[in-house]
Amino acid sequence: MTTSDYSVGKDIISYCNKCKLSLSHIITIMKDTQTIHRVQCNTCKATHAYKDPSMAKAKVRSKTRGRKVETKPIAEIWLEAVSNANGKSKAYGIKGSFIVGDIIDHTKFGPGVVQTIVDNDKIEVIFRHEIKTLIHNK
Ligand SMILES: [Zn+2]
């Protein structure tokens, strides 16, 4: 059995260009049994071509997503890490032993915060301008 949910006079959600919203519409003209041609907006009473609301939404969503996807500048992450770090800074040396959250003072890169321990003898450290993998525990 194949029945179409669409027919003239039935309610359908369509995107309305005038209201700029997906609203309830009434089908006024069908292109064929499966395809809606024109609809009338229940809100502004305008008759216009049917616009799939999911298509309209997808466009809006991808736009906002594009705007929202901003990677934090490394200096900002670094600043957060430093303010959350444990107490005093330690001078960096390969013989030193560091744990996550330690502030280390690097002669070349300046103050950094240990982010991850890698393979027991390496640490990933965030500095103001870059993330570096350093050796420790030697
Ligand atoms: Zn409308």
How does this model look, in words?
The chain is of the alpha+beta class and 138 residues long. The protein folds into two domains: 11-68, no CATH class; 74-135, no CATH class. Helices cover 20% and strands 43% of the residues. The strands form two sheets. It has a five-stranded mixed β-sheet with strand order 5-6-7-8-9. It has a four-stranded antiparallel β-sheet with strand order 1-2-3-4, with helices on one face. Strand 8 and strand 9 (131-135) form a beta hairpin. It is rod-shaped. The structure holds zinc ion. Residues 16, 18-19, 23, 41, 43-44, 46 line the site of zinc ion.
Q: With helices defined by DSSP (H or I, 4 residues minimum), what is the helix count?
A: 2
- Domain count, please report it: 2
Q: Give the beta-strand count.
A: 9
Contiguous runs where pLDDT drops below 50 for at least 5 residues? none
Question: Could you say which structural class the secondary elements and strand pairing correspond to?
Answer: alpha+beta
Proportion of residues in β-strands: 35-45%
Instruction: Report how far the terminal alpha carbons are from each other.
Output: 75 Å
From the alpha carbons, calculate the radius of gyration and give it in angstroms. 30 Å
- H/E series, N to C? EEEEHHEEEEE
Strand ordering within the main sheet: 5-6-7-8-9
**Biggest sheet, in brief?**
5 strands, mixed
Bound molecules: zinc ion
Helix content: 10-25%
The dominant shape is: rod-shaped
Mean pLDDT over the residues: 87
